[in-house]
């Protein structure tokens, strides 16, 4: 391997037509200080003399039929190494076509037209964007400006197209995701691998049908289970779009619904107590976790410490205290514990009994029972089938985290792109991200334009 090839390898370039200038004593780079912050930069110099086969203007076969028309020197940013910024001063040959007299410059696939970012550096940007790092930090690590990172990622985001030909898995988990104030998206996750399948910006019934109808029917027929929550919006379109699938209400959501009712009844009760220093008030206010804990996980043989009132009490005594105050709360609490028990023993019969014996009490639980009744068939599936939405909760946490790292994304397009970048199956993105970038010039702001690279590979 020649020295030139070694240098190419070490700076991440691949075009062998780039010839580095090596001084008589063997130096091929120099350390200089640049910029207002006087940071250290490793500078390389090289020449590029690639003659294209055809004239880019008139298509004339060049092979020797051209003039040399001077050189242009441009500065390109290379990937960082050892924390140094690396810069390449590239002297490019200019040619003139014999036929049309137009001039053009030597091109290399390692660089993009109208951008000083080299492809290996772009690769570094995308690679870092797959991790939970803010754009600002990416810019800092790679010694480029924040706005440049933002612009590059924004272009990638704009060019993104969903790949509807990708085959769907047998188990799909769907959920809504809050990505901006009052803006909910709709996400689909592979229930077996927990890779994100796709995230869509809206979640209305019509939109969901529209998104899903882009997948072939044969593809949609592959899906056997769709795990979802009890959001009334979804179940209808999901049933239509996945004709072979059983809809399963996520077990977590079944419990969560009853739990929220207990919470809300507790808070309502708390508000009716005027004496904020009373024992019951303090007990209710400071021990909310106790009132939603599964009773089977509470040791009733031992007194436990209750915050707020600062006393040891037997759990059942604490409950009796509140039950005596509000029969409504008593009923809601009992129903919630019964739902938990039915879940634990995986008995749908037990669950049905809860519904049939319920007596409306004008509390939050009324609505919960109604929702249960409305979704009974899908809830039954939850008791009988295995798939559950546990994974989606993890994904939602990560989506929130991605938003937090960026201190909230002003631009939801960029946010979605980062979510996809970070949550799609990484193997696929790594493979040919760079190969799929084109050199087309973007007319609006003259920086590189991305093609629908991900849609082609994912
Ligand atoms: Zn020409």
Layout of helices and strands:
Blueprint: H1 3-11, E1 18-20, E2 29-34, E3 39-48, E4 66-81, E5 84-97, E6 103-105, H2 119-129, H3 135-142, H4 146-159, E7 171-180, E8 183-190, E9 196-200, H5 205-212, H6 217-221, E10 225-228, H7 232-241, E11 246-249, H8 251-272, H9 279-286, H10 288-292, E12 304-306, E13 311-313, H11 315-325, H12 327-344, H13 348-357, H14 364-374, H15 376-384, H16 390-405, H17 412-423, H18 426-432, H19 453-457
Parallel strand pairs: 3-5, 7-10, 10-11
Antiparallel strand pairs: 1-3, 2-3, 4-5, 5-6, 7-8, 8-9, 12-13
Helix pairs in contact: 2-3, 3-4, 4-17, 5-7, 8-12, 8-14, 11-12, 12-13, 16-17
Strand content: 15-25%
Helical run tally: 19
Mind telling me the C-alpha Rg? 31 Å
| Secondary structure category | alpha+beta
Number of strands: 13
Instruction: Give the cofactors and ligands.
Output: zinc ion
Biggest beta sheet attributes:
6 strands, mixed
Shape: elongated
- Overall number of domains: 4
Helix content: 40-55%
- Low-pLDDT parts are 427-458
* Mean pLDDT reading: 84
The span between the termini is 36 Å
Assembly type of the chains comes to single chain
Could you please describe the fold and organization of this structure?
- The chain has 19 helices and 13 strands.
- It is elongated and about 95 Å long.
- 43% of the residues lie in helices and 19% in strands.
- Helix 2 runs antiparallel to helix 3 and helix 5 (205-212) runs parallel beside helix 7.
- The chain folds into four domains: 3-110, no CATH class; 112-159 and 425-458, no CATH class; 171-250 and 388-424, Ribonuclease H-like superfamily/Ribonuclease H (Nucleotidyltransferase, domain 5), CATH 3.30.420; 251-384.
- The two termini are 36 Å apart.
- Strands 1, 2, 3, 4, 5 and 6 form a six-stranded mixed beta sheet that branches. It has a five-stranded mixed beta sheet with strand order 9-8-7-10-11, sandwiched between helices. A two-stranded antiparallel sheet has the order 12-13.
- The chain is an alpha+beta fold and 458 residues long.
- Zinc ion is lined by residues 55, 57-58, 60, 97, 99-100, 102.
- The site of zinc ion (ZN) has 8 residues, from loops.
